[in-house]
Design a protein that fits this description.
There is one protein chain. The chain is of the alpha+beta class. Strand 26 (738-742) and strand 27 (751-760) form a beta hairpin. The model is unreliable at 1-15, 885-908 and 959-969 (pLDDT under 50).
Length: 969
């Protein structure tokens, strides 16, 4: 250092240890930093535990946690022990002297550098591989639980005679163990090779033998262990053929054995298994023979056999035996695939029947009568009318409705169920007038009320204030109507994604009949924030320090989060696959979200796989509703659980729906007391349960090919179908299924159903109509009916094109554009009717004075005749050529107070006949009353007689050929 002027006796800079105070400070800061990091890591775990405890599903959290910990510990220790033992053994077997060579002299430097830290290096390497292996194993907690709790299916695969449970529950676990064994063998082999090389047991350039006897024996045993595992893999591969996916031009995505698998790959795997066992024995024999000659020969033979027997021979069989007569060779295996796929997806009981599809155009009057009761024509399209709900029932800017509303059934004033469009008025956090932390999370905490409208709307409903607007049966803020008295506050909903802190000093915005008031959450859900520890944990978990010190939090404060129904069900039942669309139902004075959940597996032998995310996509899933489990490949699915989430307090209930599903039984063993019995479903809730859309869409996609049960016909693909594109959209996406109450051919009453159509592959005409009984109270719930169209009938896109060509449509569109409005086509409903198909489509106008869709027109087509009218009654009259018929109500109005018996509408001569019959019946009732001196009944009979005679006179005047003008006397 240069002299700074002090001279030889000047001051010197002395560098020493920091003072005790500084060391204490640094140590304290270090300890605090470690504690802070530990608390951050602990906060996530602690808040998860608190949440599961708050929803009373703590057993799910503990079972999952202990399973993960157990797998992490066991397999982490096994991997660490395997690698560590082989490193230690290789070091112990090192030669006492190293050869004098440049190679060994270079390695001496490394050996000397490692020598002082050998134990730490060994611990570090084993700890690292143990942590990685343990983390990988802990992710297999589902595989472990399914293996240890698996119950039999009671069904055997047709090739090996093994229960399906072996493929669904056992084989995945065995494959994991095999993969872990391979990883342990490879890592141990690499570690042993490096250690032997470092300490002279293996030599590359040194003179003399390339490996010591000890190294040769050690590595031979490891190689023998690896080859033995390969033998096990060959044996398991035999069973894996039953669930192997491959491309098959006749079937697309194929699962299971084909001819070449059963007659080439299967024997090849057996031969390779035997060769691998012999090769492993030869490797183990080097412990005594001390030579690599035989093991290397055996290993080479195994590799050559794998190429010739496992690759070349199957290719020869495929080329010279299968291809020349592929249909005959593959037919038995195609039949196995068809049977397994239909059973795995629950479509094996689908009832298929031929249906003409054209109808008899000469039976116009009778068809008009049948059309009146053929279906409850849902003119209110739940996919379109949300903006109308928003404009007419939003009430406040900070409320919102979902883009796609839901279809349900509620009892009408006549005591009969009616199709209803319903949506909840949920909180819209973006609409809060003044955004800040208090308003976002304390003041505006919940939505308010369920808004419902008749599904069978009429266009002229002036009583609602706007022609064409939904006919609300429950509306207002707070709501009033047919739903009765219920808890209207919506703390948990599909749009409620932010957390809220409720129940404390800060009051929440609420409503009563007199207007805005304040309230405080009275439910027991959420996590208590009264204590500082919980507040600190959530401040860290949510990255919001104000939770720790805000004065708005105090005694009674609770934090609500994971508030969407899907999130809550997924969290408490992580083994379920959740449907993309939860729907609300007013049940026993509460709003309940109903969530359909599925059990799935991709290990059902011979059943073809499908990707749920792709299968459940349609024209509504891009922006309006979610799809189920994107990219989740399965080949078995059951709607085994119906879940509910209380919209007020967030209570989650899981109900066993499919009592025979072995996958659900397995999970119920793994997580006991989490799923309630089916008989615990309340009758009021049961009335709102329905067949789920996503399940239906998966089944309809499979039925495009698997409605064919004959293997030869399946191979040719001559009768393949496709799901048609939505004719009301331009993006080429699939048409969504529709909920609709209708009568299928041969049935006497309407059933709440889920329907769709098919077209022949590559053609636009109608190929089939599919409906499933969607009413959970029905004895036929879940039964699928397929009407195979046997004549050339227009498909949805052709019907839509023909409707667009009607002159009235062009005039309507031109007039709309003149008022700066747009046209929206609603759901194109397809209804089987008298051997043909009746198409009904509501048409909406959007824009102008009302910037929301209003129902303006109804398009109807039957037998290739499209019409476009102002109301459904007019359209039906026009399409069947009948004038003066009454509108087709869902259920006909009672003839007398208290009489709710549906009366079929009548037109023309049929009306006259009905009126005369009613008059005769009333006359006979009057005479009977006279005999009993029952003057009350006699008076009623006379009134009925007078009404029947008046109807007869009116019908006679409208009958064909009746004289015009007033009747003379």
């Amino acid at each position: 250092m240069p002299d700074r002027g002090g001279g030889p006796t000047g001051p010197r800079i002395r560098v020493g240890r920091p003072s005790r105070r500084v060391r204490t400070l640094l140590m304290t800061l270090g300890v605090l930093a470690v504690l802070a990091m530990a608390f951050v890591m602990f906060a996530g775990f602690w808040t998860d535990w608190l949440w599961y405890r708050s929803v009373k599903y703590s057993s799910v959290f503990t079972t999952t946690l202990w399973t993960k910990i157990g797998l992490f510990a066991v397999f982490g220790l096994l991997m660490a022990a395997a690698v560590g033992l082989n490193i230690w053994l290789a070091h112990r077997l090192r030669p006492p002297l190293s050869a004098m060579s440049l190679e060994q002299q270079s390695l001496d430097r490394y050996r000397m550098g490692i020598a002082p830290y050998k134990k730490w290096v060994l611990l570090g390497v084993t700890a690292l591989v143990g942590l990685i292996a343990g983390a990988s194993a802990s992710s297999q907690w589902r595989t472990w639980l399914m293996w240890v709790n698996g119950v039999p299916f009671g069904q055997k695969d047709p090739q090996f005679g093994m229960d399906v449970a072996f493929y669904a529950f056992d084989l995945p676990w065995y494959r994991f163990l095999l993969g872990f064994g391979f990883a342990a063998a490879v890592l141990s082999l690499i570690a042993a090779v490096l250690t032997h090389y470092l300490y002279g047991g293996l030599r590359v350039t040194s003179p003399g033998a390339r490996a010591t006897a000890a190294a040769t024996g050690h590595l031979s045993v490891l190689l023998g262990f690896f080859v033995a595992l390969k033998a096990v893999a060959y044996w398991l591969d035999r069973y894996g053929l039953a669930v192997k996916s491959s491309d098959f031009k006749a079937a697309g995505n194929w699962t299971g054995l084909r001819y070449v698998d059963a007659n080439a790959y299967l024997p090849a795997k057996t031969i390779l298994f035997c060769i691998a066992v012999i090769c492993a024995v030869l490797f183990f024999a080097t412990l005594w023979r001390r030579t690599w000659q035989l093991p290397v020969i055996g290993f080479g033979l195994m590799v050559l056999s794998a190429i010739l027997i496992g690759g070349l021979y199957p290719a020869i069989v495929q080329k010279f035996q299968v291809q020349p007569n592929e249909q005959a060779k593959e037919s038995p295996y195609i039949k196995k695939n068809i049977d397994a796929t239909r059973k795995a997806y629950g479509i094996d009981a689908a009832k298929s029947e031929n249906y003409g599809g054209k109808g008899d155009r000469k039976r116009k009057a009778e068809q008009r009568e049948q059309a009146a009761t053929a279906a409850s024509y849902r003119l209110v399209d739940s996919n379109i009318v949300s903006p109308a709900f928003q404009q007419l029932q939003q009430e406040r800017k900070y409320y919102q409705f979902p883009a796609t509303l839901d279809v349900d059934r509620y009892t009408g004033p006549d005591g009969k169920p009616q199709d209803t469009v319903i949506g909840l008025r949920e909180l819209n956090i973006k609409g809060i007038p003044k955004r800040n932390w208090i308003n976002d999370h304390f003041t505006y905490t919940h939505g308010y009320g369920a808004i419902a409208a008749k599904g069978t709307n009429t266009i002229t409903n002036e009583d609602q204030g706007t022609v064409g607007a939904p006919d609300f049966i429950e509306s207002g803020l707070p709501t009033e109507g047919q739903l009765g008295t219920y808890e209207q506050r919506v703390y948990y909903g599909e749009k409620t994604e932010q957390y809220s802190i409720v129940g404390g000093p800060q009051k929440e915005l609420d409503y009563e009949k007199n207007g805005e008031v304040t309230t405080s959450f009275k439910g027991k859900s959420g996590v208590d924030l009264s204590g500082p520890f919980n507040r600190a944990a959530y401040a860290v978990a949510f990255s919001e320090p104000q939770i720790l010190y805000s004065g708005a939090i105090g005694d009674g404060s609770r934090i609500l989060y994971n508030r969407t129904p899907k999130e809550r069900v997924e969290a408490v039942a992580p083994w379920l696959t959740i449907d993309g669309d939860a729907y609300p139902a007013v049940v026993d004075g509460r709003i309940k979200w109903v969530v359909d959940a599925y059990t799935t597996t991709n290990g059902y032998p011979y059943a073809s796989r499908t990707t749920l995310g792709d299968t459940t996509a349609d024209s509504l899933t891009d922006s309006q509703r979610a799809v189920v489990a994107q990219q989740n490949q399965v080949n078995y699915i059951r709607n085994s659980v119906k879940a509910t989430v209380d919209a007020y307090d967030g209570t989650v209930d899981l109900y066993q729906w499919d009592t025979e599903d072995p996958v659900l039984k397995t999970w119920m063993k793994a997580f006991p007391d989490t799923v309630k019995a089916k008989n615990e479903i309340a009758p009021d809730l049961l009335a709102h349960l329905r067949y789920p859309q996503d399940m239906f869409k998966v089944q309809r996609e499979l039925l495009t090919r698997y409605h064919v049960t004959d293997p030869e016909q399946f191979y040719t693909g001559s009768d393949a179908w496709q799901v048609p594109n939505d004719p009301t959209q331009k993006d080429g996406s699939a048409v969504p299924p529709y909920y609709l109450s209708l009568k299928m051919p041969g049935e006497q009453e309407q059933k709440f159903s889920l329907t769709t159509t098919f077209t022949p592959s590559g053609r636009p005409n109608l190929g089939a109509f599919m409906a499933v009984d969607a009413d959970a109270n029905s004895k036929g719930y879940g039964s699928i009916r397929l009407l195979r169209v046997t004549s050339t009938v227009q498909g949805p896109s052709q019907v839509q094109s023909e409707l667009n060509s009607v002159p009235e449509v062009a005039t309507f569109v031109r007039d709309l554009r003149g008022t700066d409005s747009e046209i929206d086509y609603g759901n194109l409903l397809t209804v089987p009717l008298d051997g043909g198909f009746l198409y009904v489509e509501p048409v909406y106008a959007r824009g102008g004075a009302a910037n929301y869709p209003l129902l303006k027109k109804v398009a109807v087509s039957y037998g290739g005749k499209p019409v476009f009218k102002d109301s459904l009654a007019e359209a039906l009259n026009a399409v069947f050529g009948v004038e003066g018929a009454e509108p087709p109500p869902t259920t006909q109005p009672p003839t007398e107070p208290g009489d709710t018996t549906p009366q079929p509408p009548a037109t023309g001569s049929a009306a006259l006949k009905q009126a005369i019959a009613d008059a005769q019946k009333a006359y006979e009732a009057g005479q009977e009353a006279l005999k009993k001196n029952d003057w009350t009944a006699y008076g009623k009979a006379q009134a009925d007689l007078q009404a029947a005679l008046e109807r007869a006179a009116a019908a006679q005047s409208q009958a064909p050929g009746a004289p015009s003008g007033k009747p003379g006397g």
